[in-house]
């Protein structure tokens, strides 16, 4: 005879498909409308989100003294031919003049290359941004953000 489904028994649905892959597609990544932000798709998007979190916090604290600042993430710095091959910049700061805003550029690949893990990368991004903002304001980095490492 065949198998019988009892109506009172709960039906368990597996969160994986028959090949064991699990949920896939846009629904598995999250959706802003359902209260879950979508996951970054690339390491570049993840890095941009990390920089945005750090910059938003610092800019909110110092916006009255900073003035207009553009925060930019670039993959790698464009180095001149006569650059010392033993060093690579992690960021660049160009002071604004008149109506031209100051420009703080953070280079993604050199920072990712030096970081051992995600926590290390977060600390390095915070350090680089705080040091550049401190240079722009003419104050000590530890005054810009209390999370700045003292050593």
Describe the structure.
- It is a single chain.
- The protein has 151 residues and is an alpha+beta fold.
- The protein has five helices and three strands; from the N terminus they run ααβββααα.
- The chain has a domain at 43-78 and 87-144: Zincin-like (2-Layer Sandwich), CATH 3.30.2010.20.
- A three-stranded mixed β-sheet has the order 1-3-2.
- β2 and β3 (102-107) form a beta hairpin.
- α2 runs parallel beside α4 (118-137).
- The longest helix has 24 residues, at 43-66.
- Residues 1-6 have low confidence and may be disordered.
What percentage of the residues does DSSP assign to strands (E)? 5-15%
Neighbour order of strands in the largest sheet:
1-3-2
Order of helices and strands: HHEEEHHH
Molecular shape:
globular
* CATH top level assignment of the domain at 43-78 and 87-144: Alpha Beta
Outline the biggest β-sheet. Answer: 3 strands, mixed
Give me the CATH fold name of the domain at 43-78 and 87-144. Zincin-like
Q: How many strand elements?
A: 3
Q: Unreliable segments (pLDDT under 50, ≥5 consecutive)?
A: 1-6
CATH architecture of the domain at 43-78 and 87-144: 2-Layer Sandwich
The average pLDDT value, as a whole number, equals 81
Proportion in helices: 25-40%
Distance between the amino and carboxyl termini: 76 Å
Computed structural class: alpha+beta
Q: What is the rounded Rg?
A: 23 Å
- Helix tally equals 5
């Amino acid at each position: 005879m065949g198998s019988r489904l009892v109506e009172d028994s709960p039906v368990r649905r597996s969160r994986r498909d028959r090949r064991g892959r699990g949920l896939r597609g846009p629904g598995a990544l999250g959706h802003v409308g359902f209260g879950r932000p979508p996951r970054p798709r690339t390491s570049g998007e993840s890095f941009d989100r990390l920089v945005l979190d750090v910059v938003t916090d610092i800019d909110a604290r110092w916006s009255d003294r900073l003035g207009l600042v553009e925060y930019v993430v670039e993959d790698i710095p464009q180095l001149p031919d006569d650059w010392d091959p033993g060093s690579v910049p992690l960021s660049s700061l160009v002071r604004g003049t008149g109506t031209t805003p100051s420009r703080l550029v953070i280079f993604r690949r050199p920072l990712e290359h030096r970081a051992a893990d995600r926590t290390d990368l977060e600390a390095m991004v915070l350090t680089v941004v705080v040091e550049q903002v401190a240079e722009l304001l003419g104050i000590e980095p530890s005054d810009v953000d209390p999370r700045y490492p003292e050593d």
